[in-house]
UniProtKB/TrEMBL annotation:
The keyword Ligase does not apply. It holds the Pfam family Myosin_TH1. Myosin I heavy chain is single-headed. Dimer of a heavy and a light chain. Inability to self-assemble into filaments. Residues 588-610 are annotated as: Actin-binding. This is Myosin IA heavy chain. It comes from Dictyostelium purpureum (Slime mold). Residues 773-967 form the TH1 domain. SUPFAM superfamilies: P-loop containing nucleoside triphosphate hydrolases. One of its GO terms (molecular function) is actin filament binding. GO terms for biological process: actin filament organization; aggregation involved in sorocarp development; cell motility; chemotaxis to cAMP; endocytosis; endosomal transport; lateral pseudopodium retraction; pinocytosis. Residues 11-711 form the Myosin motor domain.
Length: 980
């Protein structure tokens, strides 16, 4: 079902390209009108503008997710889910890495936007156990990182005080299989100091508010007002934040990402130690200092797992080494009160920073994946900041925002316009502000602010004042740099894209050096607490640029060092210590490389007011943000430009199936194929232009048509493929069935022949050397031993008759016609039925109305059979001797098979062999009394009765029957198996 727009809130236009009047004022009015009605999302083509509503709008539930899932971008109104869906579909259809760049000033809603993106991706992807685990870990990482990395500021109650780039890696099915989080420049100075009205990191207040009584005692927790590191801001709570509930969520998140309870307790113990460190004070003693409260340092030592004396020594003194080699000397230099306080604060900041890095590593370990796949990156980084007192942290934050603004300008304004020129498209250039000179002011080598800052940190006499003097000297003519009048000589001004910012140079060098004395590092690594020891021993792997490494190596060889392992071309710590600015610049450089390698999507967040009030609009503030975000210029470029552009090859790859002229395969010139396709679909020529390598489509309507036809065609092809596959499978099944039947027939025939040979050998063992052989008896076919020669196993009357005799388990095994010798020595036609237990002589008669056609004359159990007697001549007579009853004398041409099968049934039922005797004179009991069969071999038989067999004749005598038998084959003649 197609998505339907909400007509009840049809306010302004949801895409600014559709504005009737193109001006900055009209743009602002449209944003304002929509914001007042709770419509916080507006777009400029693919760029989403998001305004912080400061209240819940109820537009992020599962119903909304379903509305945006899989929809084309022109079908649906602007929403954060739309950006997420577009990135996800592009990753699957194009097979290219995607990134979502969320930018805006602090408090504009960037963190919330990133969380909704994660929520959407988690909802629309698969649900296997491993996928669910990865998704749950990724989602739970948010509250954990917010607890340790976010804080209440004057502008935002949940301000990110670190940068985060979350990469989610997907498998071939499009499901998350892992990911990676990269964190940038945690504002660790907040640990020791906050502006009035601001708070420290959330986790400290969560710990103090949410801990149980046992935990408070175990971790020596105090009320927040009693901590020096918390009471400077005079703010202990924040609107919309429940610290007690958040602490439970943080604990659960720790469990999900693999932090066990033991490590959790160590983390909380460490956090308590950090807070108590702020309460440590020092008294002057000579040129040095001593700790004021030894009980306090003992508590801290216990929480950190270190010796109290070592902690005190590391805080009030510093080990300095002089000399080299064997002449090296170590001196314990006492620290004055000011130096001791600096060491205390540096130690607290270092512990917290390393703890935060540890948590990020734990999250990454729980979601890391060994294989390399396609990713969607979500960048949630601190917004542009302008405070009353802007220090090194704000300088770095604003620097990274400058670089992100440069990406936006490069890819949405500069590159797009350059592309029109390169492709030969008619175009009127749009002017825009390029902030590249400002970025170069900060990062350019060898003369840039960061490079000069690192250089100044190398000089022992370097300080903040000498640093600002250098800045004023080198950049006095730079349009993006200004120096401040004499009375504020400690400040300098950078003209950023978001406005002028006054930076206070005080503390720049110390924060850039990020010095932590070795005494404190050695102290931490000696801790009996595994967490403290681990985070201080951990050394992050150096991320190297392969191309730069090659250049360095080539330069190294050029300088005459043949043995490249003999010298290091990477500066050592003594020559050039790794500074905070140097690290951050490398991180930003790596981030930019990742972003430029992805297909970008933009979310531009706007903060509507400074009062954090729901749906309140500050015209001046919003106008300022629209201006420095370059939204108006972006609108001009988009409105005058084309909504869609793609290379001819990729366009054909996506749409070749919609036209008969390009289906089923187009192997010629891609541009010619595009032209044929568009002509066949009757798309007007004014709707598109051909560049040198790309097609440009001005309006979305032709794209609607192309996508509709593509979807319909894909459904047709899917049906065709499905039908073809089903036909193939059915035919394959049919052929396999025929083959299986043929194999089964052959196998059954082989089994039958094998059984026949087995039974033939058994019959041979019975008769060979005991009885002359009949020619027909030795020529046994492969079906000779079928047993049920009368085919009565399924005759209903036979089945019912046997069930009456034996019960429901009765089963016919043998049936054969015989010629019975009566008590008067007459030959009578009869039949024998054999089950698993009994022999039934039957007397056939004409079928009656009730269906009966025979009468059971007697029942001979196997257990009552004494033996079976045969003559030694070539006849078919045999006698079944029955204990305590008259015997049964009969003749059948199937005697060999019958006796073989009967002996098997007898053996199976009674677990003993049937006794078979051979004698030319067989005595038996008839119903009249003792009687005898006398067998005589004769050369010929006079034919008296045409119905009588030719190989014997019978003559009744007193109490006996004389049977004359023609000669047969020798007694040693063996049976043979012949075909059916």
């Amino acid at each position: 079902m197609a998505f339907k727009r909400d007509q009840t809130k049809n306010v302004g236009v949801d895409d600014l390209i559709m504005l009737s009047e193109v001006s900055e004022k009209a743009l602002l009015e449209n944003l304002k009108d929509r914001y007042k009605e709770g419509l916080i999302y507006t777009s400029i083509g693919p760029v989403l503008i998001s305004m912080n509503p400061y209240k819940q709008l109820g537009i992020y539930g599962q119903d909304n997710i379903n509305l945006y899932k899989g929809k084309h971008e022109f079908e649906i109104p602007p929403h954060i889910f739309k950006v997420a869906d577009k990135a996800y579909r592009a990753l699957k259809s194009e097979g290219e890495n995607q990134c979502i760049i969320i930018s805006g000033e602090s408090g504009a809603g960037k963190t919330e936007a990133s969380k909704y993106i994660m929520q959407y991706i988690a909802s629309i992807t698969g649900s296997s156990d491993e996928v669910e685990r990865v998704k749950k870990t990724i989602l739970e990482s948010n509250p954990l990182l917010e607890a340790f990395g976010n804080a209440k500021t004057l502008r935002n109650n949940n301000s990110s005080r670190f940068g985060k780039y979350m990469e989610i890696q997907f498998n071939l099915a499009g499901d998350p299989e892992g990911g990676k989080i990269t964190n940038y420049l945690l504002e660790k100075s907040r640990v020791i100091n906050q502006t009035m009205g601001e708070r420290n990191f959330h986790i400290f207040y969560q710990l103090l508010k949410g801990s149980s009584a046992e935990e408070k005692q175990s971790f020596c927790l105090l009320p927040p007002e009693q901590y020096s590191y918390l009471n400077k801001g005079r703010c202990y709570s924040a609107d919309g934040i429940d610290d007690e509930l958040s602490f439970k969520q943080t604990k659960n998140a720790m469990k999900v990402v693999g932090i066990d309870e033991k490590t959790q307790r160590e983390i909380f113990s460490t956090l308590s130690a950090i807070l108590l460190l702020g309460n440590v004070t020092f008294n002057a003693q000579g040129t040095g200092s001593v700790v004021s409260d030894k009980k306090l340092t003992a508590s801290i030592s216990n929480l950190l797992g270190v010796e109290p004396s070592l902690l005190e020594s590391a805080l009030v003194s510093r080990m300095i080494s002089t000399g080299q080699g064997a002449r090296i000397s170590n001196y314990q230099v006492p620290q004055n009160v000011e130096q001791a306080l600096y060491a205390r604060d540096a130690f607290a900041k270092a512990i917290y920073s390393k703890l935060f890095d540890f948590i990020v590593r734990k999250i990454n370990t729980s979601i890391e994946v060994k294989t390399i796949g396609k990713v969607i990156g979500v960048l949630d980084i601190y917004g542009f900041e302008i405070f009353e007192n802007n220090s090194f942290e704000q300088f770095c934050i604003n620097y990274v925002n400058e670089t992100l603004q440069q990406i936006f300008i490069d890819l949405t304004l500069k590159t797009e316009q350059e592309e029109y020129v390169q492709e030969g498209i008619k175009w009127i250039p749009v002017e825009y502000i390029n902030n590249k000179p400002c970025v170069e002011l900060i990062e350019k080598k060898p003369i840039g602010i960061l490079a000069l800052l690192d250089e100044e940190c190398l000089f022992p006499e370097g300080n903040d004042q000498t640093m600002i003097d250098k800045l004023n000297k080198h950049f006095s003519n730079n349009s993006h740099y200004s120096k401040v009048e004499r009375q504020k000589n400690s400040q300098f001004i950078i003209n950023h894209y978001a406005g002028k910012v006054f930076y206070n140079i005080d503390g720049f060098l110390d924060k850039n050096r990020d010095t932590l004395f070795n005494d404190l590092v050695i102290l931490a690594t000696s801790s009996s607490m595994s967490l403290i020891s681990e985070i201080f021993k951990y050394v992050a792997p150096i991320e190297t640029d392969a191309e730069q490494e090659k250049k360095n190596l080539d330069k190294f060889k050029k300088n005459g060092f043949a043995n490249t392992s003999a010298k290091s071309y990477i500066p050592t710590d003594k020559k050039r210590p790794i500074t905070a600015g140097f690290q951050f610049k490398n991180q930003v450089s790596s981030l930019l490389k990742s972003l430029y390698s992805c297909n970008p999507h933009y979310v531009r967040c706007i903060k509507p007011n400074e009062n954090k009030r729901a749906l309140e609009w500050d015209q001046e503030k919003c106008s300022e943000q629209v201006r420095y975000l370059g939204l108006y210029e972006n609108l001009l470029v988009r409105r005058a430009g084309y909504c869609y552009r793609q290379t001819f090859t990729k366009f054909m790859r996506r749409y070749y199936m919609v036209a008969k002229s390009t289906w089923p395969k187009w192997s010629g010139d891609a541009q010619k194929g595009v032209e044929l396709l568009l002509n066949e679909l009757n798309i007007p020529k004014e709707e598109f232009q051909f560049g040198k390598t790309k097609i440009f489509i001005r309006n979305p309507q032709p794209l609607f048509l192309l996508e509709e036809k593509r979807t319909a065609r894909l459904n047709e092809l899917a049906t065709l493929i499905g039908a073809t596959w089903k036909m193939y499978k059915q035919r394959k099944w049919y052929l396999q069935t025929l083959a299986a039947r043929k194999i089964q027939r052959a196998y059954r025939g082989w089994l039958l022949r094998r059984e026949c040979v087995k039974l033939k050998n058994q019959s041979q063992n019975i008769f060979i050397n005991n009885k002359e052989r009949n020619r027909k008896s030795i020529q046994l076919s492969s079906i000779a031993f079928i047993g049920d020669f009368l085919s009565l196993a399924k005759d209903q009357y036979t089945v019912n008759s046997l069930k009456q005799q034996e019960g429901q388990n009765s089963e016919l095994q043998l049936s054969v016609n015989v010629s019975k010798v009566s008590r008067h020595h007459k030959i009578q036609k009869r039949a024998l039925l054999i089950t698993n237990e009994n022999v039934y002589p039957i007397h056939p008669h004409k079928p009656k109305k009730d269906g009966s056609w025979f009468t059971i004359k007697r029942k001979i159990p196997f257990s009552s059979i004494d033996k079976i007697s045969f003559s030694k001549l070539c006849d078919d007579f045999f006698v079944i001797h029955v204990n305590n009853e008259h015997d049964y004398v009969c003749e059948t041409i199937r005697k060999t098979v019958f006796i073989t099968l009967l002996s098997n049934l007898y053996q199976k039922q009674l677990n003993k062999q049937l006794v078979i005797e051979f004698n030319d004179s067989i005595h038996y009991r008839s119903q009249k009394g003792p009687s005898e069969l006398k067998f005589v071999k004769v050369e010929h038989i006079q034919e008296k009765n045409p119905q009588q067999p030719l190989n014997y004749s019978t003559k009744s005598e007193k109490n006996s029957l004389k049977i004359s038998v023609l000669p047969g084959l020798p007694v040693e003649t063996r049976s043979v198996v012949v075909g059916n």
